Amino acid sequence: CLHRIPNYNQILWYKKSNQELQLLGYMYFNNPNIENGINATIEGDANKDKTCTLILESLDLHSSAVYFCAANTVTNTQPAYFGPGTKLTVL
């Protein structure tokens, strides 16, 4: 995930399955924070023109979903901008 929005310093990662959106974690500047029970890591940087990567671990059939990133500010005073998403199918 990469954005070009000045002053946006947070990338949020979501999983969408069965019409439910689940927050997996976020990167604030270059400090990752994974939600409890999520088997993944987040690497990189959330600042403008930097790359932030979600790395999923121990995939199974329940990992099949669409994964989204969203750029935002930590204060949430501006709109979040979502990427197009990536569909993952585990066979």
Automatic annotation (TrEMBL):
GO process terms (BP): cell surface receptor signaling pathway; immune system process
Short name of any one Pfam family annotated for the protein: V-set
Keywords: Immunity, Signal
Entry-linked InterPro entries: Ig-like_dom_sf, Ig-like_fold, Ig_V-set, TCR_beta_variable
Record-annotated Immunoglobulin V-set domain positions: 8-91
GO CC terms, sorted: plasma membrane
Highest taxon, organism lineage: Eukaryota
Protein name: Immunoglobulin V-set domain-containing protein
